[in-house]
TrEMBL record:
The keyword Transmembrane applies. InterPro entries: SBP_5, SBP_5_CS, SBP_5_dom. GO terms for biological process: peptide transport. It comes from the Archaea. Keywords: Membrane, Signal, Transmembrane, Transmembrane helix, Transport. Pfam families: SBP_bac_5 (PF00496). This is Peptide/nickel transport system substrate-binding protein. PANTHER family: OLIGOPEPTIDE-BINDING PROTEIN APPA, PERIPLASMIC BINDING COMPONENT OF ABC TRANSPORTER. The chain crosses the membrane at residues 5-24. It comes from Methanobrevibacter gottschalkii. Belongs to the bacterial solute-binding protein 5 family. Residues 81-438 form the Solute-binding protein family domain. One of its GO terms (molecular function) is peptide transmembrane transporter activity.
Amino acid sequence: MEQKYIIGIIVLILIAIIGGTLFMSGGNTSTRADNELVVSAFVHGSEPETGYDPMYGWGDRGEPLIQSTLMKMNRNMTYDNDLATSWSSNNNFTEYTVNIRDGVKFSDNTTLDAEDVAFSYNQAKSTGNTIDLSSLDNASAVNKTTIKFKLNKPDSTFTDKLLHVGIVPSDSYDNNTYGSNPIGSGPFKLAQWDKGQQVIFEKNPNYYGKQPKFDKLTISFQKNEASFNAAKNHELDIAAVPLSYANETIDGYHSFLSESNDVRGISLPMKNNTGETNEDGIALGNNVTADKSIRLALNYGINREDICKGALNGAGVPNYDGIAHFLPWYNNDSTIKDADIDKAKDFLKKGGWKDTDGDGIVEKDGKKASFNLYYSSDAPERQAIAVAVSEQAKEFGIEINATGSNWDEIDKIKFSEPVVWGFGSTDPYVMYGEYYSNQAGIGYNNPSLVNNSAVDSHIDKAMSEPREQSYADWSAVSWDGQTGISPKGDAAWLWISEIKYTYFVDDSLDISKDTFKLQPHGGDLFGNIYDWTRISPINATN
């Protein structure tokens, strides 16, 4: 009797464990309701270390979901008002005035006014962990619905900064607790954060704008293969997957390949490593890539088309200047011919590089044309690019050692070793951080250590011109009329590809491709979440 009782208990425990496992893994069916969404995504799919705090980077390149922003950019790259109702600037773009909606409430029913907006921008500038607000001197409330932004230099791109800072309540904001308990005025509010697993948002009834059609949004912190497998188990409405899965199929799902302005490129430090360091003690310069003939050889010898078709599984677009092809300041006049190995070899020969020992790698002054190329091990597409570039470079005598690492380690060598980076923005000001001479070796800026007065001059001029008029100068940063090499003929970067984002979308869901927003760097899946709708019962195809 006692033995049967024990066996019975064991059976019940096993049933509970199996049932719980099936529940956690989703089994082969979905338990979500039609008015709920379960998604894995890129920028919002990565769990934020500092929580859901815009002052520390949450939502700085996408829809922050919890917080409002002053403006939004539509798919035609023009501005729509969000919290703002209007904006204007003075003639030299050193002062901006923004008017906002009256009567807006945060999710805790407190009132949002101009003081909250001014506080949010001043706080974001002071933390330095969100978008680049270095041109902002200060923001101040003129009255309850008007904010004045005073800048320390002309900046016609400042309108883009109005897109990316989520507004927090000035009276209750606490940088130690806000990330875990955010209060905002956006379409959703935080309901539950299961750290390491998922976050759950619920619709914010106080939201003033177009209401989402879904009452609940769960974002799963699954990535790569785990995200793909979760979709195969029908646990997700949308699954972001690596480019290697671009040609896969899942029953009950359709694939969606989204263009983005996210560009992958390799920094090639332009100065020699003489022992100089930046203020953080990080070494500056590389004795191989400092030779321009090496940089030119790579820019002409690498086959970007092959990398996009092969290593990136067809989900990439060749890129030569770090500017996505659909941006207004893109320059399509580049004279670079992909995979011109003869020209690459000629650059090396004229630069004094020769293979004297017959090992296939050229040398100069007793130094091999050899260097390490670092990439984040968490990014499969960066690994694919690093490996492909290293294999191709051997064909014209350069040895590149593709090296996977984490960002803590990459931080220590980012100005002395080439790195596979991701850049891209609807704001041309990103080029200031990539190329301006006084940004070299600061934070993550200008890792190639570009120091070119012509580049600086074009950027300065662009910053003081009306936005549309400035595009010619932004474009000129990457164009010298002869080589077409970025920036201004220095070949300080080896740009490789624009990245497309791969998703599997449940057939019951329409994410409105006609209104899908241009994805900024990192990807913003939720930019048009207000237009998503369930077109059939969720279990109809699962």
